[in-house]
Amino acid sequence: MIKAILIFNNHGKPRLSKFYEHYTEDTEQQIIRETFHLVSKRDENVCNFLEGGLLIGGSENKLIYRHYATLYFVFCVDSSESELGILDLIQVFVETLDKCFENVCELDLIFHMDKVHNILAEMVMGGMVLETNMSEIITQAEAHNKMEKSEAGIAGAPARAVSAVKNMNLPEMPKNINIGDISIKVPNLPSFK
Amino acid sequence: MPAPIRLRELIRTIRTARTQAEEREMIQKECAAIRSSFREEDNTYRCRNVAKLLYMHMLGYPAHFGQLECLKLIASQKFTDKRIGYLGAMLLLDERQDVHLLMTNCIKNDLNHSTQYVQGLALCTLGCMGSSEMCRDLAGEVEKLLKTSNSYLRKKAALCAVHVIRKVPELMEMFLPATKNLLSEKNHGVLHTSVVLLTEMCERSPDMLSHFRKLVPQLVRILKNLIMSGYSPEHDVSGISDPFLQVRILRLLRILGKGDDDSSEAMNDILAQVATNTETSKNVGNAILYETVLTIMDIKSESGLRVLAINILGRFLLNNDKNIRYVALTSLLKTVQTDHNAVQRHRSTIVDCLKDLDVSIKRRAMELSFALVNGNNIRGMMKELLYFLDSCDPDFKADCASGIFLAAEKYAPSKRWHIDTIMRVLTTAGSYVRDDSVPNLIQLITNSVEMHAYTVQRLYKALLDDISQQPLVQVASWCIGEYGDLLVSGQCEEEEPIQVSEDEVLDVLEGLLVSNLSTPVTRGYSLTAIMKLSTRFSSLNRIKKVVSIYGSSIDVELQQRAVEYNALFKKYDHMRPALLERMPIMEKTIFSGDGIFTVCLWSVFPVLQANDLLDLLGGNDVVPIIQTTVPTKPASAGGELLDLLGDLSLTVIPPMTAYNKNGLIIEFTFERSNPNPNIAVITIHATNSTEADMTEFVFQAAVPKVCSFPSCILINLLFMSWCIGT
């Protein structure tokens, strides 16, 4: 069972925290701090597995982490989960986020915390892995978003306009128009986005 | 009231804060705005406010006033509201608040909603934080959804069922009929979660386990399809088809095949196939192989398969990827008990891992190395382990030292090697050894009679180098006290005897007494050692001087000892030689009646106080030390013992049963000796009332230090009466 999923940056600021077992608010913050201390001390070329800190269950639980650029993705699991499998799961999670947010970066996680939670809810439920198929997860998340947008009313108009333009198929501007042996070069106009 | 700001605005504002205090201020202001907005019961913006509240909760600020608002959101009709409401419920609520029960009705309605996404949200929340009451109420709904044909809902219902079973195990039977055709699904998501549900049920109940054994052929078939099928883009992860499902199925097969011949038989082929066909260049392949190896080791597989598994693990050990090595060491640790010989083959690789830079790998390698030590490889292994002890982090030193002591005790090829090893440990990691190793070592040294001279010489030389490591100093001073005469007479056979004079030895011991590095316990040891040398050395005056100086020491323990030793010199000089004689050989025994209890070692000094005597005789579970107490002639001072025994006149002390457990009965009887009424004689009767023999019964006597006038304790061991009459 997965006990907790934490995402924090290189300075220890939490970007996402989901606990699948109950702890008080203070304990949750302490766990985040403790995990950050343990994980940030690790070198770059050591293995990705650690014994859990005291607050989160000591040596029965393991911390499996991956470091991407400025973010640490940490899954705290107990002994019933396969360590290498969880490593793959983290990879799938990050790739899903990448597809959903288009070249995801830390700012995306900061400003769209609720969306990240929703994606995570499609993957892990109650501490157990629900779905690992990336396209399936993305389809579901998109469907949810569509439902939300359809209810949004006037406030959703700008968002709808943006997505409408994105979905529009603008024809490609040809670089060269060739009519027989006359070739006319088309000037380089700035592209419409 | 102006519209509350959007979540995005809030995040932007908070990020501009430069100090923690500024951030706190901003958050407090926003919290106040949110609170007033909640009070106004504003429906349109409730969703936005709760979202902001969740963000602040993640940063660590209290957000409990939003709990009721989450419930209101869940009850709303809009999907947006429900979504944030359920998210808030999962993050803020849990079964310890009574508020959560109000959710039950909403969840029930939503489980029957027309939109599958709303049903999904409800299942998700129930599966994450449903309490046992909620689960009991809603289990029927979940079971209904488990039978639906909508795969999106079915997989969520399966995991929700797992949570329900965890909270209320009695409801497991309710889900049994629904599991009938779970495995015939095509959708991988549903398959995956069904396997999780089956795994949970099998782990919890042996009846379910035997019921589901008939599913083994079906599982094998699914696994086969996964491996044999070609490339399918939707389930592909780095070239392997749905590795997560493969791993899950392997795990379920492990549980089903454990201890059962038929199932293990059915699985043999597929396991061999997976083990040989999986590509190992990427992490995914290794994950599957790892799971396969664990399964092979757990079920009743044929020996060829087991050898294959251990070889895979051996290959893992040589892999460059640290994760793989870590995982290999962990699984080897699990299998070393059962397949000891196979793991021995990889010993050299494991020992190399001791030199790895990674802390986690080093720890695993150390544990595994200790498990692999046996009589044949003890010398080689010990060399590596001692080298490791020199260079490892302080966290490891204590465990490593204890491990080395244990291994050395079990497999030492010769006494000299044993003592050398111990010396090496003490000199390199002396401050990290456990406290109980000092008496163990003393016992070991006493028992190797022929090595006394060699031992004391080596310890003396070690003391000359370094007096900071307390266990080493304690053992050394004890030995010098006992065998100082051997040291001075230069009798060592094993190595070159050194020339040491009595004064030099006394210099060293006195140095220990005054040094700041010595703890009070060490000082006690060295004072006693000096005292013992009074019968072995000839320079009595110097010893007398030292002892009398410490009669006024601030440390109460030292003072008491010095005063008593002084008394030995003055009034009881005739008893001194007998009292300070060489210690007899001490045996450490473990004997079992119905249970096991060890007869503890002791050293003469320090010894228990009188109160502890009573505690021991009071009969707690581990009462090994059998002591003789000597009631001396009644006197005004120092009568603590007499107080214990009550009667001052000592005419008659009734016999007492000191120990009565597991068939062993020990009784003390007291009587006055006829020729000399000042002497009391205590007889110990030990009887064995069980049918089995009790072997290795050892008598040990401890002299209580509490008596301020040393009394002569003659212990006549009448073994005769013990051997007869079991």
UniProtKB/TrEMBL annotation, chain A:
InterPro entries, alphabetized: AP_complex_ssu, AP_mu_sigma_su, APS3, Clathrin_sm-chain_CS, Longin-like_dom_sf
Question: A Pfam family this protein belongs to?
Answer: Clat_adaptor_s
Q: Which domain of life is it from?
A: Eukaryota
List the SUPFAM superfamilies: SNARE-like (SSF64356)
Recorded GO cellular component terms are: AP-3 adaptor complex; cytoplasmic vesicle membrane; Golgi apparatus
What keywords are annotated for this sequence in UniProt? Cytoplasmic vesicle, Golgi apparatus, Membrane, Protein transport, Transport
Q: How does it sit in the membrane?
A: Peripheral membrane protein
Q: Name one GO biological process term.
A: Golgi to vacuole transport
Which residues belong to any copy of the AP complex mu/sigma subunit domain?
Answer: 1-147
Primary location class = membrane
Where does this one sit in the cell? Cytoplasmic vesicle membrane; Golgi apparatus
Biological role: Part of the AP-3 complex, an adaptor-related complex which is not clathrin-associated. The complex is associated with the Golgi region as well as more peripheral structures. It facilitates the budding of vesicles from the Golgi membrane and may be directly involved in trafficking to lysosomes. In concert with the BLOC-1 complex, AP-3 is required to target cargos into vesicles assembled at cell bodies for delivery into neurites and nerve terminals.
What protein family does this chain belong to?
A: Belongs to the adaptor complexes small subunit family.
Name of the protein this chain belongs to:
Adaptor related protein complex 3 subunit sigma 1
Question: Which species?
Answer: Cyprinus carpio (Common carp)
Q: What is the lineage of its organism?
A: Eukaryota, Metazoa, Chordata, Craniata, Vertebrata
From TrEMBL, chain B:
- Pfam families found in the cross-reference section: Adaptin_N (PF01602), Alpha_adaptinC2 (PF02883)
Q: Which residue range or ranges hold the GAE domain?
A: 651-726
The biological process GO terms on file are:
intracellular protein transport; vesicle-mediated transport
- Protein's cellular compartments: Cytoplasmic vesicle membrane; Endomembrane system; Golgi apparatus
Sorted alphabetically, the Gene Ontology cellular component annotations on this record are: AP-1 adaptor complex
| The name this protein goes by in its record | AP-1 complex subunit gamma
Q: Which PROSITE patterns match?
A: GAE
Family under the similarity heading: Belongs to the adaptor complexes large subunit family.
Show the taxonomic lineage.
Answer: Eukaryota, Metazoa, Chordata, Craniata, Vertebrata
**What topology does the record note for this protein and the membrane?**
Peripheral membrane protein
Q: Does the keyword Repeat apply?
A: no
Q: Which UniProt keywords apply?
A: Cytoplasmic vesicle, Golgi apparatus, Membrane, Protein transport, Transport
